[in-house]
Structures are given as C-alpha cells and as structure tokens.
Amino acid sequence: MKLKKLLSAACAAVVLCGCLAGCGADEKSDGESNMDKTNDKSSVVLSAENAKQLGRTEVIDGTVWCAFSGTGVEFSYKGPALDVTIQGDGAAFEGSGNEARVAVYVNGERTIDEAVNSAEKVLNVITEDTGDSEVTVSIVKLSETAMSTIGISPLDLSNGGEVKPTAAKERKIEFIGDSITCGYGVDDEDKDHHFSTLTEDVTKAYAYKTAQALDADYSMVSISGYGIISGYTSDPSKKVSEQTIPQYYTKLGFSYNKFANTTAPQDIEWDFSKFTPDVVVINLGTNDDSYTKGDSAKMQEYIDGYRAFLEKVREKNPDAEIFCTLGLMGQGLCSAVEEMLYYYQQDTGDEKVHFVKLDVQDASLGYAADWHPVEANHEKAAETLTAEIKSVMGW
C-alpha cells in the first residue's frame, strides 16, 4: 500500500512544469459561463451542458479538469473525424514516472490508452466521418489524483460535428477508498514491483467493476496509501496523519501538482449537489492497520476517527445507503469497523449503514505490484459487494 519515493518525484515534477499554460483560481467558472463568453460556436467546452461528467470534475477557463481516478467526460458525437486535446500538469513530461494515464472508449471499446507526457497531447478519437450514426465517446483518467491531473480542452468543431451528453443512469454510487479502489499496480503482476501511474487502471478495480455490474454512474474519492487516521507506515510507532482521506472528502481532489500549474484540486470545494449517490461505499482501513497493528488504544483511535468520518459522509449524503467494506488486503480492522457501526447505529438510529466483509485476496491467483490485488481478485470482491448492494437496495 505504500507509495515509494513518490513525494520527491512529484516535487521534482512540479519544478519542471513552468512551461505549462496558466489560469488563475479567480478565472474559475462553470461551463455555461465559459460558453457564453465566446462567440466561436465551433469551440465547445465539455461542460455538463453537453457532456456527462464522470466523477468530480471542474471547468476552469473552458478546460474540464480531472483529478481523482475514473474522472472524465462522456458524450454522444456525430460528424467528421474528431481530435481531443488533453492538457497535462507538472508531471506531464517524458520519464517523470508520474504521468497521468488516460483511456478513450468509443461505443464502449477502449481505443486509446496513453500517458500524458507533454503539456498538451492530441488524441485522434474519431478517425473517420460517422455519417448519420451517433457514437458514444468516453474519456477516463485511469490513474490516481495524487501524482498527476489532466484537463480536457474545448472541442474544435469548425469542420462540423455535434455533441450532446449521454443519458444519466438511474443509479449512482460513490466509492471512498485507497490504492485498492485506485487499481494500484493491477497491470503489473509482480509483487516485487512498486508504484507507477502507468500500471494503475481504475477500470480493473472492484469499485468500477461494481458500478458496471449495477449499471450505475460512479464517483471515486481515493488516494493510494491513505487511511482514516493514518496512511501507510513501515514503522507502527509513527503515524502518518497527513495521509488521510477525511480531510479531502469535501475537495475536488488532492495532488502534488496543479491544474495548469496554478490551481490545486485540494483548493477547490466540491459541490455535492452535482452528484447525489444512492449508495456510498467506504473501503478504508488497510493503511490504518499498518499503524494500529492490533494495539487496543490505536484501534480505538481508528474507531473514533471512522465514526467522525462516517458522520461527515452521512451529513453530505443524508439519503444514501452506506456500505463500509474491508478485508481484501487484510482483515485486521474488520472487527473495529463492525464495533464502530454497532455503536453508531445504537446512538443515532441510522439503519442505512451496513458492513461488508471481503475475502482476503486469493494468493493462488497471484499478486500485483506491492502485493496488491490482481484483476481476478478485484472481480471476486466486486461480486461480493454487488450482491450485498443488490440485496439491500432491491436492485
């Protein structure tokens, strides 16, 4: 679960990113106002007005910025060949080791899978005229927020073409987690290898797979190495309190880099009215366990911290069913989560909270980088979680 040498690499990336185009935080505006202030109808900002937003996104100066895993846009397109320009941040240079990984899907098929290794990268999304047919285009950030972010520039439709948002799904799920949710190392099935954004793929992780199985729109809030009260630590006597998810739950993300080298995602408050989930899944504790290590006082600290975070999640999502899950990379804190939920329900009367204990990953299926789950173990976890959600929700 640890992120080896990432902070130093990220800081180096930030130093080298001065050439990127900038836009100040005071230039932030929504997609509609960006479209209103230009008379060039051939330049289309992919705001919520004409593209479904995947996860937590923000339009700044006409660019859709994406931080968390799985963020992006989805739209229907009809017209001639289409290019999409992706903007990078301070990690967007060849060999940085933290380049964002982006995929493009056309009608559900992955057609592009690339690292954003330059300040701007042009992707040939539609290579020929679609004729009278509409195609569905999805642009998805596969890698996580901490190391790099991306921007999706306005579309150039000067040669014609039409875009409109794909339909919202009836079901919505928010996932809150750590590297397991991010799909850490899932494309590197060698347990002795370490973190790389280029081997992360959120679409191969249990959360994305659960959303697909339930035909639900999703939003991810996840950072590798993070926990409730402590991030991953190799020394249980040292709590890594700066690597915790609760402090960023109300933010657009967290990154060592900045959008267009000016605005950090953690400086932008998330508008919870933009995405109202029916279900919230919390999968946090694997990193905390490296700190608590069965110590009763530390486990109580985890219980208290989890309770406070659960109350914050409930405040922001008053009507959602909340599923607290744990176990895929160890079950050391499962009893603590169950205890926390028992007393939380006793005290509040909130019956819309549930515990889902996941099986520990099957060693016979192998391990990914740093002992993380391979896709087959993510699939097993998704099956368990999907079944529990279906049972409770009647889906």
Can you walk through the features of this model?
- It contains eight helices and 18 strands.
- The chain is an alpha+beta fold and 395 residues long.
- It has two domains: 6-165, Sandwich (Jelly Rolls); 171-393, SGNH hydrolase (Rossmann fold), CATH 3.40.50.
- α6 crosses α7.
Describe the SSE topology.
Blueprint: H1 6-15, H2 31-36, E1 43-44, E2 52-54, E3 57-60, E4 63-66, E5 72-78, E6 82-87, E7 100-106, E8 109-116, E9 120-126, E10 135-141, E11 150-152, E12 155-156, E13 162-165, E14 171-177, H3 179-182, H4 206-213, E15 216-222, E16 279-282, H5 289-292, H6 296-316, E17 321-326, H7 334-348, E18 353-357, H8 375-393
Parallel strand pairs: 14-15, 14-16, 16-17, 17-18
Antiparallel strand pairs: 1-12, 2-5, 3-4, 4-11, 5-10, 5-13, 6-9, 6-11, 7-8, 7-10
